[in-house]
Amino acid sequence: MLDLATTFLQSVERSPHALALVDDGVRLTYAQWQDQVARAAAGLRRLGLARGDRLLSVLQNRHEAATLHWACQFAGVVIVPLNWRAKPEEIDYCLSDAGAKALVFEAASEAATQYSTGARAVPRIGVGALEGGDATLSWAELLQGEAAMLEFAAEADDVSLMLYTSGTTGKPKGVPRRHRQERAAALAHVAQNLYRRGERTLGVMPLYHTMGVRSLLAMALVDGTFVCLPRFDTHAALALIARERITCLYLVPTLYHDMLTQRQRAGAGDGPGEDIASVTKLGFAGAPMHDALLQRLTRAFRPELFVNHYGSSEIYTVSIDQDAVKKPGSAGRAGLNTRLRIVRLDATGADDRVGPNQEGEIIADLRGDEAFEGYWNRPDANARALRNGWYHTGDIGYFDDDGDLYVTGRVDDMIISGGENISPVDIESVISLCPGVGEVAVAGLSDERWGQRVVAFVTRSGEEPGLDAQTLDAHCRNSDLPNFKRPREYVFVAEIPKSPVGKILRRKLVAGEYEALGSHPDTPAA
């Protein structure tokens, strides 16, 4: 299989004059971008970075971050992208754990870099305008000098990048991914989303997250355009979609929700419009999308393809559904490079499967072309997640009678109330359809009688200002939701706590880390 550097060069050779990269004030064709990538790769070599060395990047989705990613593929350097909001101790941990030999930062991550002890011991490349003089050298200095010939220092079996998991419990885990695994995942992404040559995507999913990396690589595979949006802003996102004629979106559900809300405030409602007419393909991942949002997006975009992608940093594609609206909530069937099974929660092996409509843990075959091979320096995590050639995702789901997968939550999110195992996702989908609901998250709170009680945390959309707990409870009673799953409490909150990539942080709800706007004083009748 080709390495990623050769993959980029393919696009340069096929379409040298095609628009490749867009950022504020920057528009580069593939030929022009090749020059920038070559200069950056040469700069990394001058800095002393060699094949197999790690480089920590703490950047937003700016053009330099995209260029740096490709430069590392040519230099054979393993890029280790980190959340630009990272705290000094997180930078210290990842620098040490990855053994990174240099760091790249910008104004948004400058303060954390300054207070990072580990950062003082390595060269620091500063990108853009910085307030202090903390950089060892600037991005301009890294790229200075004569235009260099592109050199190929990596092979398909070399490690391309190392992503750090979100670390919802304990320290984050490094996920090393080889060039061939990354290329296979990008190829599958192109095929599963039916991308054509010359697609244009909004590069807003962060490049420290697998969705952002996949969008970057996929555009190169189809000689497409990666339009940078450093941090998500609804107004800026919609303006870029209209101005750059974006053709495909690949986002987490939260960002779609926020864009539709912005259009409503601007008077566009949930209907189609010229501002989004160029978008023909929608894809989402990272979290389930509730029925109400699926319906709203379908009305607004009228997409020719609406893909639900279920995966992880470790196994990029677990399953794919190319018609997300046909069976709301379905994650479809195994992806092109994957096999999957559902096993009992206490399974002793991959053959301990559950039957149709029975919940269990979702596992994926580690022989898949997109699959990683194990965590970095974490034999304890490997022992938990990698068993007999299968990756145990920690996600709960079931197959319906047609064989389609439904992901119903995390093992850690399972609510055990009165002896019943209850997953939050089905409850959230029902509540999302109640008029006036903005967003909803369901969690289990400690209860003396039930062990845990089902609690729904809800934001109001503004359409039904009188929305209250009684209305929500009546809505649930009139749905097909089993009574034992019906929430026993409704809490109205200012916002649902989420990770930087839009995943609901139920642990914060359980811990009381939210701004309550008032809830129904009485527990709904059983």
CATH topology-level name of one domain: Rossmann fold
Assigned CATH class of one domain: Alpha Beta
From the spread of the alpha carbons, the general shape counts as globular
Radius of gyration: 23 Å
How far is the first residue's CA from the last residue's CA? 59 Å
* Percentage of residues in strands: 25-35%
Mean pLDDT: 92
Class by helix and strand content?
A: alpha/beta
Number of strands: 27
Low-confidence stretches: none
CATH architecture of one domain: 3-Layer(aba) Sandwich
How does the major sheet shape up? Answer: 10 strands, mixed
Helical percentage? 25-40%
- With helices defined by DSSP (H or I, 4 residues minimum), what is the helix count? 15
Give structural notes.
The protein has 15 helices and 27 strands. The protein is α/β, with parallel strands linked by helices and 526 residues long. Among the domains are: 30-178, Rossmann fold (3-Layer(aba) Sandwich), CATH 3.40.50; 414-519, GMP Synthetase, Chain A, domain 3 (2-Layer Sandwich), CATH 3.30.300.30. Strand 13 (281-284), helix 11 (291-301) and strand 14 (305-310) form a beta-alpha-beta unit. The longest helix is centred in the first third of the chain and has 17 residues, at 30-46. It is globular, with a radius of gyration of 23 Å. The mean pLDDT is 92.
Key features?
single chain; GMP Synthetase, Chain A, domain 3; ten-stranded mixed beta sheet; 526 residues; alpha/beta; 25% strand; Rossmann fold; 15 helices; five-stranded parallel beta sheet
